[in-house]
Write a structure and sequence with these properties.
single chain; about 300 residues; alpha/beta; 12 strands; about 45% helix; methyltransferase
């Protein structure tokens, strides 16, 4: 299948689309070593074929939107490994090309979302789940802009401003993408009805409600139960299609292991869609099997 024939916003107006799941867990399942500060982004340089294979697994499962492996890919992070700016820009572009290559394997249209992760992901210390880095909005904008420009050069269908922990970083990201010519979605990481930094979600969603470049808003990398309330609130406050892709529900322990029972149920997709979700998928620890089941739920709900 060639590149999509309609913009993502047009497709969302027609009905919900299925997002992929967690890239890192699929890479781990393929035998990749992710014990590195660059996490899955390291494979953009060292094993790009593994990233394309992971994307392809989600296409086969029924994903209609693929999120690139650029979440933790930054100029600063790769500079610590001795890569120059041109080399890093090429890797960022490669992240889009790999997803596009996997998308072409599908039998239907598949859109590519270029991941723009938060500043804290570059620090690799968990601070993307706290926010409030001690930087101004202007400083955060300067950090994000070069990465946005590199990703835009590869012509993704949308930029995924994802796992955003607070309103300040959301404001910086929206400034960094303004006028870039590519639509965006804005997705917060939340806990207990607030951003990770503790701001009310209504305030967070209102920030982008009148921004025409934002074609969807919502949440990701959160507990499935937290997503329920967030979807309803995002639809009410934003008046836009809602994006939702929570984690499995397991807890990430200091030992770098996942603990507890999973709480991600593909059946939740039905209520999320009823409440306004149009981009529905999974994040950490949600693999192709679960995305396949979620796709079945979405498809069944669309039948007359």
């Amino acid at each position: 299948m060639s590149a999509p024939t309609v913009p993502l916003a047009t497709a969302l107006a027609r009905g919900p689309l299925v997002l992929d799941g967690g890239l890192s867990n699929q890479l781990a399942a393929q035998g990749c070593d992710l014990s590195d500060e660059l996490w899955s982004a390291r494979l953009l340089a060292d094993a790009p074929e593994q990233i394309e294979a992971a994307h392809a697994a989600y296409v086969r499962a029924g994903a209609q939107v693929l999120i690139t492996g650029s979440y933790q890919a930054t100029f600063e992070g790769f500079a610590r490994r001795g890569l120059g700016r041109e080399e890093t820009a090429a890797l960022l572009r490669r992240s889009v090309e790999l997803a596009r290559g996997a998308a072409a394997l599908g039998e239907r249209e598949v859109w590519v979302a270029a991941s723009v992760g938060p500043y804290g992901a570059m620090l690799a210390d968990g601070s993307e789940y706290r926010g409030r880095y001690g930087l101004s909005v202007a400083e955060l904008e300067r950090f994000h802009r070069p990465r946005v420009e590199a990703l835009v050069a590869a012509r993704p269908d949308v930029l995924a401003l994802e796992t955003v922990p607070d309103v300040d970083e959301a404001r910086a990201l929206l400034a960094a993408v303004r006028g870039c010519g590519v639509p965006v979605w804005l997705s917060y990481s939340v806990a207990g009805g607030r951003t990770r930094a503790g701001q009310p979600l209504a305030e967070a969603f209102a920030l982008a409600a009148d921004d025409d470049q934002v074609i969807a808003m919502g949440v990701n990398c959160c507990e499935p139960a937290d997503a329920d309330h967030a979807v309803r609130l995002a639809a009410r406050v934003g008046g836009k299609p809602v994006v939702v892709y929570p984690n499995s529900g397991e807890t990430y322990a200091p030992t770098r292991t996942w603990q507890g029972p999973p709480g991600f149920a593909p059946s939740r997709a039905a209520s999320w869609r009823t409440d306004g979700a149009r981009l529905i998928g999974g994040c950490c620890r949600v693999g192709p099997d679960l995305i396949g089941k979620l796709a079945e739920v979405v498809e069944k709900q669309q039948r007359p």
